[in-house]
């Protein structure tokens, strides 16, 4: 799947989640919080890289356990990119571990939450602080 540079001037939200139920929940939550954003949902880190090559995101909602790696490792990689380092990231995980929290903190992730704790107010709070 190849992405071309987006000409849409609206802010972009990238959802990276392999489970369909959770991906739809994250999409609905993001849409409620930020209805003027273009929301793209992908199922792998490789697909997320392709989307980000087409242009930066204004917000990333990122699962930690994906088929091709850990979201926290992906966030560390983004933190090393001058064009993506400031992108607000929320890691949304079923079971956040202390090790994951440490990696997320080192990557500048704005928040780590359980999937049941993700809500529109949290997303709005993160975007206001950015």
Structure write-up:
By secondary structure, the protein is an alpha/beta fold. The chain has one domain (12-129): Response regulator (Rossmann fold, 3-Layer(aba) Sandwich). Helices cover 40% and strands 22% of the residues. It is built from 5 helices and 7 strands. It has a 5-stranded parallel β-sheet, sandwiched between helices. Strands 4-5 form a two-stranded antiparallel ribbon. It is globular, with a radius of gyration of 13 Å. The model has no long low-confidence stretch (mean pLDDT 90).
Reconstruct the topology from this structure.
Layout (H helix, E strand, L loop, with lengths): L11 E5 L3 H14 L4 E5 L2 H10 L4 E5 L1 E2 L2 E2 H9 L9 E5 L4 H9 L4 E4 L5 H10 L1
Parallel strand pairs: 1-2, 1-3, 3-6, 6-7
Antiparallel strand pairs: 4-5
Helix pairs in contact: 1-5, 3-4
